[in-house]
Amino acid sequence: MIRIANGQGFWGDSPDAPLDQVRRGPIDYLTLDYLAEVTMSILQKQRSRDPQLGYARDFVEVVDRVLPDLVSKNIRLVANAGGLNPEACRRAVQAVAKRHGLEISVATVSGDDITDRIDELLDRGIEFRNMDTGEPLSVIRDQVRSASVYFGAFPIAQALAGGARIVITGRCADAALVLGPMIHEFGWKPDDWDRLASGIVAGHAIECGAQGSGGNCQVDWETIPALEDIGYPIVEAEPDGTFVVTKHAGTGGRVTVASVTEQLVYEIGDPKAYLTPDCGADFTSFHLSQDGADRVKFTGVRGTPATPTYKISISYAAGYRAIGSVAYAWPDAYRKARAGARIMAERVARLGLDFDAVHSELLGVNACHGIAAAEPSPELAAQLPEVVMRFGVRSKNRAAVDRFTKEIAPLVLSGPPSVTGLGSGRPKVEEVMAYWPALIPKSEVSPVVSL
Amino acid sequence: MKIRLLDIAHSRSGDKGNRSNIGLIARKPADYWILVKYATAERVKEHFSAICLGKVERFELPNLNALNFLLHETLDGGGTLSLRADPQGKTLGTALLRMEIEVPE
To answer: CA-to-CA distance for A36 and A77, rounded, in angstroms?
Structure first.
């Protein structure tokens, strides 16, 4: 049996979680997941400003804190912190190791960044049709900023077999961070579909950090212990593909069939065909059982053969946006906020500028649930102590969005009464990135493992 | 008898581009059939008609006593484009729990 722990569900997750995972109980592998679509666009911006950047810099600080424990306890670390620049990330990690006076082997998995090959691939007839809309990439070719292939777990396993203490990947399937160590430890083969799928399901169960161990859990949420000290999830994996999801003893949170099931249904499509680079996983195949306190056992995961394509994610510039908010106080907070939204909509319309989207919502009333939330009754509306009116626009034209940002503050003095602006000054104009999911034949790209 | 999904189910939602995914899980295995029978794709589409501009697909996970709904064209263009306070639809899971269904006594 091996223990694989997740210590980071996204870039921005708790900086203490990785340290807790290596210190508060036994583990063999620590995995850290940094990359989301939105992260890739941030990394792309950073790399365009400085070619030495483009990786998750927080990861280097995490390594600084966990490295002595990794070495003394013989724990190996797998992270997709390389982002768009795994090599620069490795150099930064090696500088940290040197400061600690430690000799460690750091491997990278790269080859996923195909930004510079797009034209060549288009010329050869690969259309990169959008998986959701069917449109060819030519529609947005000029706006493309980055293109990354999601690689699988075998390159990670190869790096571990080569003796790496730390494996830094670029883009890869999130669950591959967990499957990679299993392939390495158990010698699973590329056509062991059921076992590979077990590793994918295990990876999915823990890839979002504490959301798999009692965080963001709806069932009896108020009784879930010590969320301020929540234990991140850990997989205890067996060579036959069965595994247990658990957490370190003495930590907060809760691992039950209910809390784990919430994570299993998170961000999936057709559950019979959860496709990854290494296999398909059938999320309707397996059985969960409570195996003691804070332990959920998985048995019977079934897999299907891998497809001949990799998924790629292409980021492209999609214009600009800005969002501003003001808060209206009792009495009549709801009616004032509605009036404020109407006044803003009319002023924005009068500007006669070219907005792709104009949106307002009322926080405290129905911003989260929209129309699924009933309009507040007149009695409730009259009692609301305050309502936030949030108003945003999006446009391909930066000047239009910039002009919009000058409309929010005047509303405080020229609109309904008892109102305060939120934040300081005008809303910020943000560049917006959008994502273009597509497929590429596996024969066109190869992962590069460097030790 | 009219009940809310909140009475018998819990949920979690996330995003896949411009699609929202909502997993709906029976609190008791014995109630799973109620979800299968009454929480139809049509009802869910109707419930989210103001924001769901595309189709709703429904998948069954009897092993988890759960249904998975994929709501197409629902997230105002997707997590990075959206102007909403909840651009990834993280709270749409509980929005679904507001839905009322008519079940036998």
So the answer is: 19
Q: Are A35 and A171 in contact (CB under 8 A)?
A: yes
What is this structure's pTM?
A: 0.96
Q: What is the pLDDT of residue A373?
A: 64
Q: What angle do CA A331, A335, A336 make, to 5 degrees?
A: 75
Q: CB–CB of A269 and B91 under 8 A?
A: no
Report the C-alpha gap between A93 and A64 in whole angstroms. 8
Pair type for strands A309-329 and A419-421: antiparallel
A154 in Cβ contact with A172 (< 8 Å): no
Determine whether the interchain pair A372/B96 forms a contact, defined as Cβ–Cβ distance below 8 Å.
yes
> How far A273 CA sits from the closest chain B CA (Å)?
11
Structure-token match 């076992």, residue found: A195
Hey, what amino acid is at A9?
G
The pLDDT tens digits for A55-108 are: 999 999 999 999 999 999 999 999 999 999 999 999 999 999 999 999 999 999
Q: What are the CA-CA distances from residue B2 to residues B36, B38, B78, B99, B101 (Å)?
A: 16, 11, 34, 10, 6
Q: Are A38 and B60 in contact (CB < 8 Å)?
A: no
Long-range Cβ pairs for the range B59-64 (8 Å, 24+): B59/A269, B59/A270, B59/A271, B59/A272, B60/A284, B60/B36, B61/A265, B61/A271, B61/A283, B61/A284, B62/A284, B62/B32, B63/A284, B63/A285, B63/A286, B63/A287, B63/A288, B64/A261, B64/A264, B64/A265, B64/A283, B64/A288, B64/B25
